[in-house]
Write a structure and sequence with these properties.
Main location: membrane
Subcellular location: Cell membrane
Protein name: ABC-2 type transporter transmembrane domain-containing protein
Number of domains: 2
Number of helices: 13
InterPro entries: ABC-2_transporter_component (IPR051449), ABC2_TM (IPR013525)
Membrane topology: Multi-pass membrane protein
Helix content: 55-70%
Radius of gyration: 29 Å
Strand content: 5-15%
């Protein structure tokens, strides 16, 4: 009976174009469409104009350092700040650097040199990236000047401390690398929920009611479990590699256990929810307006520590809350099952809870029973 229900579920999906598109087509579409918006997540070679009013060796050294930056590219050396401002207003450059007259003299006399930086606030990310790179170059100039002054005064020339920054997990330090690995699992949950509930609502419209034996219900759940695990294998095995998102080389067994628990909780919740829908349009209407709140409740973009405690507890009733934490931790950060035991227990309890609701809602009723 389980095997027949398993195969019958796949036949029903293939016969329903809407369910097939939600379960298969939407995952394929989102896997390429969604990351495209973040393909340029780390701006590089932002055009910068330099106005050098000092014409000294130190100011030329600063220009050389600016030209070597990954974030900025010196595209013009202009004669005056007024000309540079026009270039900025015309959006021919993203930032301008003005080196005032007497820049080198102030440094050599033991004073503090000043450099003016201007960026276009209409493009905050682009201008901030360019200005951050320029600021780093200025910091290097300042350290070199400090070493030179220390040598002149007889102090040790070596810097006492050196700071090296290395991101542990989001190695690209981009927004897409932070958001999409979590959104992918939200997409998997939502497509499973909508596909299953649309299929169930269609059957209810045709039959008037839905009643299944526990073994039949298990066969249906196993079919959707296979689809969900295939989605996770597709995203973690191909999409994250194709989009070059950070991966923590998760242990295969750890990933299989995590994926199985996450999809089990999602399918159990979808089966329980599907029992309440009577028309096939309602699931899509509901989940379109709830996807964004569900994502925020997952704790990926807004920390759970900053969320009201009652809302954090309520969010744990959603499979995505522990599921995203578990899957991102395992797949992107290389976490172990022991380190993610809280999320695993949460998903196991949700599977039991929603599974019990589904069995109760779909139980076989005697003839003539409501």
């Amino acid at each position: 009976m389980i095997g027949r229900a398993f195969l019958a579920t796949f036949r029903a999906i293939l016969a329903d174009s809407s369910a097939l598109m939600l379960l298969i087509g939407s995952c394929l579409l989102y896997s390429f469409f969604y990351p495209t918006a973040y393909s340029g997540e780390v701006p590089v070679r932002m055009p910068v104009a330099v106005v050098n009013l000092d014409h000294s060796a130190t100011s030329r050294s600063l220009e050389t350092r600016l030209g070597a930056l990954q974030q900025a590219e010196v595209v013009a050396r202009l004669p005056s700040p007024a000309v540079a401002l026009r270039w900025l207003e015309e959006r021919r450059v993203s930032a301008i650097v003005v080196i005032p007259q007497g820049f080198e003299q102030r440094i050599l006399s033991g004073g503090q040199g000043t450099v003016a930086l201007y960026g276009n606030g209409a493009y905050l990310l682009r201008s901030s990236t360019a200005l951050a790179g320029i600021g780093a170059a200025l910091g290097e100039i300042g350290r070199d000047a400090a070493v030179a002054q220390a040598m002149a005064s007889g102090a040790p020339a070596a810097a006492p401390l050196a700071m090296i920054q290395r991101p542990l997990f989001n190695t690209r330090e981009g927004y897409g690398s932070t958001i999409f690995p979590g959104v992918a699992f939200l997409i998997i949950q939502q497509t499973l929920l909508m596909g299953l509930t649309v299929l169930a609502a269609t059957m209810r419209e045709r039959q008037g009611t839905l009643s299944f034996a526990p073994r039949t219900l298990l066969g249906i759940a196993l079919a959707f479990l296979v689809i969900g695990c295939a989605d996770i294998a597709y995203f973690t095995g191909f999409v994250f590699w194709f989009q070059d998102y950070p991966r923590g080389a998760a242990d295969p067994l750890t990933l299989v256990v995590s994926a199985t628990l996450f999809i089990s909780a999602t399918v159990a919740g979808a089966l329980a929810l599907a029992s309440f829908f009577r028309t096939r349009e309602r699931p899509i209407q509901l989940w379109i307006v709830t996807s964004v709140p569900i994502f925020f409740l997952s704790g990926l973009s807004w920390p759970s520590e900053a969320t009201p405690h009652w809302l954090s507890l309520l969010a744990r009733l959603l499979p995505t809350t522990p599921g995203i934490k578990l899957m991102v931790g395992v797949n992107q950060m290389g976490a172990t099952l022991v380190e993610q035991r809280g999320a695993l227990i949460n998903l196991a309890l949700l599977t039991i809870f929603y599974g019990a609701i589904a069995v109760s809602r779909y139980r076989l009723r005697p003839c003539g029973a409501p």
